Amino acid sequence: MKTTVFCGVSVDGFIARPDGSVDFLDAFDPPVDSEGQASDMGFGALMASIDALVMGRNTFDTVLGMIDGGMIEWPYGDTPVIVMTSRPLEMPEDLQDTVEATDLEPRELLDVLSARLVEHVYVDGGRTVQSFLAAGLVDELSITTVPILIGEGLRLFGALPADVRLERSGGQTFSNGMVQNNYLVKADR
User: Buried b / exposed e across 151-188, counting CB within 10 Å, b at 16+?
Assistant: First the structure.
């Protein structure tokens, strides 16, 4: 099974403000490609390649808040979404067929997903990414650096039991100043 992290961070390493808000992203126009077309910075290709998305509870709550606020529609289509949480989760009725909650640890969850024949998982959310990295369960990272300093907030990375060596596998700079770097996690970990 392959696991991929795909997210944006401020230059000072934050994925969100202390309250979980990602409003700092609103300061940037969507990037355009060489033909002047809007670019999703690879998100569509990622979503087309995965079989399931695993996200943390705070990330799920943030997405629901953006939907309830009319800012976005459900961005994951029919892709199965598993929310890692230890708190009870009241699922919106329109998401009950595609979203489920779990309190399993990362390795146990991947075993369950493997039994369901899931081959590629997108891992999202600060603490969730940290727990998968700490367990040695991340294969690829796609990190887009947003050209802004926000001073404080929620970090993408946290304490690890050992160094995680990465090999840069590509990247690009977008018209809005964002820079995406792609990495493979080296197996000699």
Answer: eebbbbeeeeeeebebeeeeeeebeeebebebbebeee
CB-based contact 93:73 (threshold 8 Å): no
Angstrom distance (rounded) from CA 73 to CA 163: 38
β-strand pairing of 120-124 with 52-56:
parallel
Using pLDDT thresholds of 50, 70 and 90, give the confidence band for residue 189: very low
- Quickly count: other Cβ atoms within 10 Å of residue 143's Cβ: 20
Could you report the per-residue pLDDT of 115-153, keeping only the tens digit for each?
A: 999 999 999 999 999 999 999 999 999 999 999 999 999
- Selected residue with higher pLDDT from 101 and 67: 101
Both tokens of 8, joined, read 């944006």
93-128: burial string, b at 16+ Cβ within 10 Å, e else: eebeebbebbeeebeebbeebeeeebebbbbbbbbb
What residues contact 99, with CB distance under 8 A and at least 6 apart?
60, 80, 81, 82, 83, 91
User: pLDDT per residue over 80-98, tens digit each?
Assistant: 999 999 999 988 899 999 9
Measured in whole angstroms, the distance separating CA 15 from the mean position of its chain's CA atoms is: 10
| 188 pLDDT above the threshold of 70 | no
Mark out the alpha helices in 76-160 (DSSP H runs): 106-115, 126-134
